[in-house]
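Entry for pyridoxal-5'-phosphate complex. Fields follow.
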Amino acid sequence: MASLADAGLKFTTLPHPAPASDETREAVLANPGFGTNFTDHMVVIEWTEGQGWHNATMGPREPIALDPAAAVLHYAQEIFEGLKAYKQADGSIALFRPKANAARFNRSAERLAMPTLPENLFVEAVERLVQIDRAWIPDAEGASLYLRPFMIATEAFLGVRPAKSYKFIVIASPAGNYFKSGAPAVSIWVSEYTRAAPGGTGAAKCGGNYAASLVPQGEAIDRGHDQVVFLDAAEHKWIEELGGMNLYFAFEDGTLLTPALTGTILAGITRDSLLTLAREEGLNVVEGRYSLEQWREDAASGKLVETFACGTAAVVTPVGKVSGRDVEFTIGSGGPGQLTQKLKNRLVAIQRGEAEDTHGWVHKIG
Ligand SMILES: Cc1ncc(COP(=O)(O)O)c(C=O)c1O
């Protein structure tokens, strides 16, 4: 894998004329919320056909100039990632499995006919941003610095073909604890809409997937639910995932099932980490198919004891209630279950450096 040096790239650091004052930053960090506040800097790396990746800069976070004909604005050639930097128990800072994000970014790039980025360059860009903006990592328990690497097609051309120029950018946003203590389990709405079809872009992290999920997510909210769950496109029968999280189902016999990666759901890094941790717990972990009808039956009979959603933003979230056009059921007691809590605790302890990292997942950056 090419390193920064192999790629022939040297970062230029541009001066920042007006970084946030200590008071401003501390006010943000006291109540960071999620996705609304941003750090001082950003990374930009450019790609053009023939030249490849070049012009890597670390500079002030600022608006980007785009030609109104830029391909991203018309044909949605855009992909992104989401990962977090955590303060560790020993005071250092670490990313969680950033190489997995880099690999997924490249899989998304390939699906969207965009150039891939050397994995080490992706990781170094993120590391550099965390280092320069380390004062923006909140201290509170459960808080982190959310990193958003993304790529857009910048070529000014009104024709449907892959663009010949791109920008890779990384921005960062301090994030509070997604879990309010004592929060009940989430309630989810089974959508009539489809998120992804076989052969489509469901396994890619491209903006278009999320644009298409806004109406179904809005429907869920309007009906008083927190999240939307999507079924498969072909039979409208098999459970796929939520708008931004993967799902797990826990059974009384010690089986833990998650929908298999068939190409229509996103290969979550949290999902993958939990596969490993659950196997270590001695559970019979299965990647397979699970229908809405079976889910309802198993919840009613007590065979299904817990359901939880997982992803970088909310880590592990219990699902308490499921509603749809023809169904309505409660899982277990409707509140957080024991296994959900146990797996969440194990994962968070590793991410925070409070438990031994036996899998090489914690990527320290000093
Ligand atoms: C559609 C979708 N599924 C699942 C996930 C969970 O993935 P991860 O655990 O890598 O955050 C995300 C979030 O990135 C997502 O957007």
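NOTE: The pocket of pyridoxal-5'-phosphate is lined by residues 82, 241, 244-246, 266, 268-271, 311-312 (CB under 6 Å).
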